[in-house]
Structure formats: structure tokens, C-alpha cells
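Re: that chain you flagged

S.,

Sorry for the slow reply, it's been a week of failed gels. I finally had a moment to sit down with the sequence you sent. For the record, here it is as I used it:
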Amino acid sequence: MTDTVSFGYEDIDATEKTGRVGEVFSSVAAKYDIMNDAMSGGMHRLWKNRFVARVKPQEGEAILDMAGGTGDIAFRLATSGASVTVSDINQDMLDVGIERAMERGIDGLVWSRQNAEELTFSSRIFDAYTIAFGIRNVTHIDKALREAHRVLKFGGRFFCLEFSQTDWPGFKDVYDLYSHKLMPQIGKAIANDEDSYRYLAESIRRFPKPAEFEAMIRGAGFENTRVESILGGAVNIHSGWKV
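Prediction finished late last night. Pasting the C-alpha cells below so you have them in one place:
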């Protein structure tokens, strides 16, 4: 039986997804942060601040920021004095992050190209694992969650920031219109890339709903899982502990 996974609204062979997602992020890397501001009205900065506040990074901790690409989460984590490893499967995204770190004079980050499903790190070496707006692009999410659990120390914590579908009456219709109609047009206008932003919008619709994703996190071995919803579930902070 062929193993199929979602790529936006398409169902494709699982062996194709990593490459196709890679093409999307290579295409958008240079304009990624500008597009984040344009598409969220700058709110993504507030969401990321809130996310890192929940992680509570501490000086001396070892933290893996997966799908960390351009460094937005890592830069925030690093202000605590934590030792942060930034990993992403896409080298173009990492290159943007390294350049941004140099421009800001941020030293001490470790940059490592990694596949979230097959991390090369040893087991039980990180105090925290973070992933923001990245896990829905992973081919086999269950494998990535198990790898997150593996590399965490006992007592380590998992935090994921991800989009989903909102349940707010009225806002849901506006959100659907925006993501399906306007987001690709903004991508075309700013990044000259309509198709990539259409995929990103569609991938949100195909991502498991918060309760389902929380069950997947528990299935990977995490305990004390929690979901903190923002904008009626349009954005969610998922967390769990390795005990």
C-alpha cells in the first residue's frame, strides 16, 4: 500500500513531501520574515513572545529549536543565557538565520541542518525542545514527536506553536477568506510567490485539530500535555513533559 500524506489539499506519496516542502521554503526564505509581518499584521511577534515566555528558558539550559530557520524563536530564547541549537531541514532558511544573527551581533547559537524525523543528536541531552510553525510541514509528524521525546532529558519539556482552525463564530469565515484568497495574493505581491503561500494556507487546514494533535503528543510519550489557544484556536501553544 502506498504511504500518502497531505501537501496542502493534495495527497501525495510520502517520499515526495520533504522535497516539495523544501522547495517551498527555499522559495520563500529571503522574504519569510517580511511576509510574516504582512500576513499577521505583526501579531506573530506577540505570539512568539508569549510562546517563549511559556517555555521559561533558563541560563545554562540546552534547548533545541527545531524548524528554527530564520532564528526568530532562538534569538528570544538566547536572551535568557540558555545554550540554543537552531535546527532546520532547509539550509536556505538556516542561511537567512545565520545572516540575521550576524547583523544583530548574536553569538553563541549552534546552527545544525537536521531532519525532525531523524535527528542525529544523542538521546536525553536537551532540557527543552521548541518548534514554531514548523511541525505541520513534517512528513511524518508522529516520528518527529518521538524524536523530540528521545532527545529530551527526563524532566524536559516540549513546546510547539502552530496554526489551526478557529472556532470563533464570524471570525472563522473571515479567517477562511483571508487565508484562502488574500494570503496567496499577498505572497504574490511581496514575494512573487503565490503558490508557496497557497500551500502554507492549505497546510493549516489539513493539520490535526488541537485535541487530535494533543493526543499525538501524548502518544509520543509526553505527560501533562496542555493546549493554550489564541484567537479561538487559530494559533495554539502545545506543551508536554518527559517524565
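What I noticed first: The longest helix spans residues 171-191.

Talk soon,
D.
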